[in-house]
């Protein structure tokens, strides 16, 4: 698949690049994408939730009333879950939600995510982007020139560019990452992928290993 290369002002450079068939042309594996996104979201969970159960409640264990003759149901201590302020039955406990996923599955998931975006024609190739200083205004103009304002965008660079990262971090619905750090969730969550021409070769190299 050939894609037009644009400059940072959204102008057609007259060049075209061919997206690597081994990455962008495969048949997407939806289950691999599901597993990788599921793992990513699970890893974001702190797992620090906690509710006091019966044994941890600070109430007295004194029997509230006599067993018989009151006309009501039998009652033990105020720790009973049936009373307001009592312990919680099977309440949440701190736990680790993360789980293992094989490297080959994660790699297939990322390839599949790229392929999904390529088939949907949601990929734009940028020859390069460089900002002289961190300015949010400049990054907003960059998005406007590419006609992606208001869309969820993911800019993929070959290496970390501090000025670009700082310029984009206050802009909603946009994220900047590198070719080696991009994950399946970010790829699928974006409406439009903005990939620098140099990062494209890095992506191909990563999957050729």
TrEMBL record:
**Is rRNA-binding a UniProt keyword of this protein?**
yes
GO MF, one term, reads: rRNA binding
Known SUPFAM superfamilies for this protein? Ribosomal protein L4 (SSF52166)
> Which superkingdom?
Bacteria
Record's GO cellular component, any one? Answer: ribonucleoprotein complex
Whether Cytoplasm counts among this entry's keywords is no
Pfam families according to UniProt: Ribosomal_L4 (PF00573)
Q: Which InterPro entries match?
A: Ribosomal_uL4, Ribosomal_uL4-like, Ribosomal_uL4_dom_sf
Q: Which example biological process does GO assign this protein?
A: translation
Renumbered to this chain, region (Disordered) spans 45-79
Keywords attached to this Swiss-Prot or TrEMBL record, sorted alphabetically, are:
Ribonucleoprotein, Ribosomal protein, RNA-binding, rRNA-binding
Q: Which family does it belong to?
A: Belongs to the universal ribosomal protein uL4 family.
- Describe the task this protein carries out: Forms part of the polypeptide exit tunnel.
Quaternary structure per UniProt? Part of the 50S ribosomal subunit.
In terms of PANTHER family, this protein maps to: 50S RIBOSOMAL PROTEIN L4, LARGE RIBOSOMAL SUBUNIT PROTEIN UL4M
HAMAP family for the chain: Ribosomal_uL4_B
Q: What is this protein called?
A: Large ribosomal subunit protein uL4
Q: Which organism is it from?
A: Spirosoma radiotolerans
Its organism's taxonomic lineage begins at:
Bacteria, Pseudomonadati, Bacteroidota, Cytophagia, Cytophagales
């Amino acid at each position: 698949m050939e894609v037009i290369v644009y400059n940072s002002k959204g102008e057609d450079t007259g060049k075209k690049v061919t997206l690597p068939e081994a990455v962008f042309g495969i048949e997407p594996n939806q289950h691999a994408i599901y597993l990788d996104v599921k793992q990513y979201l699970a890893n974001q969970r702190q797992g620090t939730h906690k509710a006091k159960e019966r044994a941890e409640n600070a109430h007295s264990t004194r029997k509230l009333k006599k067993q018989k003759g009151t006309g009501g149901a039998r009652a033990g201590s105020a720790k009973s879950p049936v009373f307001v302020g009592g312990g919680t039955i099977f309440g949440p406990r701190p736990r680790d939600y993360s789980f293992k996923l094989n490297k080959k599955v994660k790699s297939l998931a990322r390839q599949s995510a790229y392929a999904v975006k390529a088939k949907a024609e949601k990929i734009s190739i940028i020859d390069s982007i460089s900002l002289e200083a961190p300015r949010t205004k400049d990054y907003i103009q960059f998005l406007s020139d590419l006609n992606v304002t208001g869309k969820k965008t993911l800019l993929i660079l070959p290496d970390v560019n501090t000025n670009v990262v700082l310029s984009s971090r206050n802009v909603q619905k946009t994220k900047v990452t590198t070719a080696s750090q991009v994950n399946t969730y970010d790829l699928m969550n974006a409406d439009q992928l903005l990939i620098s021409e140099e990062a494209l070769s890095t992506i191909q190299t990563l999957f050729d290993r």
